[in-house]
Amino acid sequence: MGQNDAIIRNPILTGFNPDPSIVRVGEDYYVATSTFEWYPGVQIHHSRDLVHWRLLTRPLERASQLNMLGDPDSCGVWAPCLTHADGLFHLVYTDVKRYGRTTVGGASGASLRDFHNYLVTSPRIDGEWSDPVHLNSSGFDPSLFHNDDGRKYVVNMLWDHRPGKNRFAGIVSQEYSPAERRLLGERRLIFEGTPIGFTEAPHLYKRDGYYYLLTAEGGTGWGHAVTMARSRALTGPYELHPDTYILTARHRPDAGLQRAGHADLVETPDGRTFIVYLCGRPIPNRGRCTLGRETAIQPMTWGTDGWLRSADGDGLPALSVAAPGLPAHPFPAAPVREDFDGPDLPIDFQWLRSPWPEELFSLTARQGHLRLYGRETPGSLFRQALVARRQQAHCFSASTVMDCEPAHFQQMAGLICYYGGTKFHYLYVSHDDALGRCLRVMSALPDSPAADAFTVPIAIPPGPIELRVEVDFERLHFAYRVAGVEWTWLPQMFDASILSDEATSPGLPNFTGAFVGMACHDMAGTALPADFDWFEYRERQYRTDPA
Question: Which has the least CB within 10 A, 227, 328, 384, 529?
């Protein structure tokens, strides 16, 4: 694709990549996104043309920076903010330890939450990042603003648990001292938000003598929106944008991208402004976003009145937009198959919560294999041997070959399609008293009268077994084969739409996305090993015959 005819196709970061923050350093653009309970923390993607992107690094990689043992589902690392100043990259983020009740303004009863905001720095985007500085715990979605006078300020949303209060109490600011590594003075409430509520995700910018405050409002579901306000003083008062929302699909259920919100701005070297934002792509038949919250980008224009609007003027998220005409810079395609031949886990894969992966898996215990050590169950909040990658397309195939010999029913390992501890489909090998080594599926169902469901066990011979899943929008099929014979398809069709934010029980947080990968657990505490020789993930078009 040439320099002048490129089109950006949204989303640019497919699959679970929410809450984007973008920064340009020279000719390089970097976007940081939330990882929640998945380890290592924060995904950083890189581009040089805003069209092509690659996953570059995850900076929170050791216990001194991030330990999420015990963090509930959909908690952990929220809303990183990535900036560059004084020769350093700065990354601020929240580690959520307790979600509390889901409530709206004016609701009665306490809604206690625990969230801690931190700052880490590095001279290199892909280098070793510092140990964190604790900033505050007053709310989530912290952002660091570097003022043109050299001073720095942290802004975050303020959480108010008191009965009768607006839980999302507005945006607060407080000065940060790099020399003292702490906040200075008193925090100040600078913006209370608009009537749609859920004011969060603040970012500050300075332009032509104004401080511009960008926030997300309306909740991270169908009512999400990007709000803008401005003030001559950093501490306010802030006047609202004439249109209030500069980007939203809240009144357009026909839009291809929904849930648009949680945004950040970047300028190209020639002064053009682009916005990155969170979005979701509902599957056509069920209206659920099985790929989670993704990241999109599109051009914006500053008007003669000093306000920012979408380039086309309609304020809607767009599936495709004109690229800025930068020199094309594609990256090599990701491999379809990972053979686990190296000492490090391939970058597309993550695990859950623990900063001590050596307790969970090894790439050296058996050459050319990923060995999982059976730990706690898929619903645990602590130590799980579950290694997976994002589902990044509505239609895909995934498969692996596994060598594992369970001795009893409490030992299990296999292929898993996973959203969280209460939402997954797990094709696993175990042991049955009557059948011996066997295969079956366990499903955790968030929106069914039965919390879990099992298929009838199938006897299988010893030795390596290939496991396969085919997903087409809301339809999921499993298959297996032994010794290279034809695939045997399980007769059941499973509901892939449960692997979404929208499938839930009331009051539970649901902010991550669907993963597919490998799991091993041993409820007897004997650390049964399961060896995986390779893993394939292949995106494709929809097909009616799973075979």
Answer: 328
| 200 is known as an active-site residue | yes
Write down the residue that tokens 């700065």 correspond to. Answer: 90
Over residues 285-327, the pLDDT tens digits come to: 889 999 999 999 999 999 999 999 999 999 999 999 999 999 9
DSSP letters for 171-225: EEEEEEETTTTEEEEEEEEEE---TT---EEEEEEEETTEEEEEEEES-SSTT-E
Written as one string, the DSSP assignment of 222-259 is TT-EEEEEEESSTT---EEEEEEEEEE-TT-TT-SSEE
Q: Which of 19, 376, 403, 466 is catalytic?
A: 19
Close Cβ partners of 168 (under 8 Å, ≥ 6 residues apart): 105, 157, 158, 159, 160, 193, 197, 198, 199, 200
Return the HEC string of 388-423.
EEECCCCEEEEEEEEECCCCCCCEEEEEEEEEECCE
Nearest to 476 by CA among 397, 400, 538, 539: 397
Chain centroid to Cα 275, Å, comes to: 18
Q: How confident is the model at residue 3 (pLDDT cuts 50, 70, 90)?
A: very low
214 and 227 Cβ atoms separated by less than 8 Å: yes
Instruction: Write the pLDDT tens digit of every residue in 29-81.
Output: 999 999 999 999 999 999 999 999 999 999 999 999 999 999 999 999 999 99
Residues in CB range of 250: below 8 A, 6 or more apart = 218, 222, 223, 224, 225
For residue 546, the model assigns a pLDDT of 53
Residues 6+ apart with CB under 8 A from 377: 384, 521, 523
pTM, rounded to two decimals: 0.96
The token duo for 251 is 């009144």
Q: Which domains, from first to last, does the chain contain?
A: 7-322 (2.115.10.20), 337-539 (2.60.120.200)
When the pLDDT of each residue in the chain is averaged and rounded to a whole number, the result is: 94
- The string of pLDDT tens digits covering residues 214-258 is 999 999 999 999 999 999 999 999 999 999 999 999 999 999 999
Say which DSSP state 304 is in: T
Please say whether the beta carbons of 525 and 391 come within 8 A: no
Q: Measure the CA–CA gap between 81 and 23, rounded to whole angstroms.
A: 9
For the chain, how many helices (H) and strands (E)?
A: 0, 40
Residue 312 annotated to the active site: no
Given a contact cutoff of 8 angstroms between Cβ atoms, the answer to whether 97 and 115 are in contact is: yes
How many CB atoms neighbour CB 214 within 10 A?
A: 25
Q: Which two tokens stand for residue 148?
A: 């043109």
Separation of alpha carbons 310 and 404, rounded Å: 54
Distance CA 306, CA 327 (A): 30
Evaluate the CA torsion angle 333, 338, 344, 345 in order and state its sign.
positive
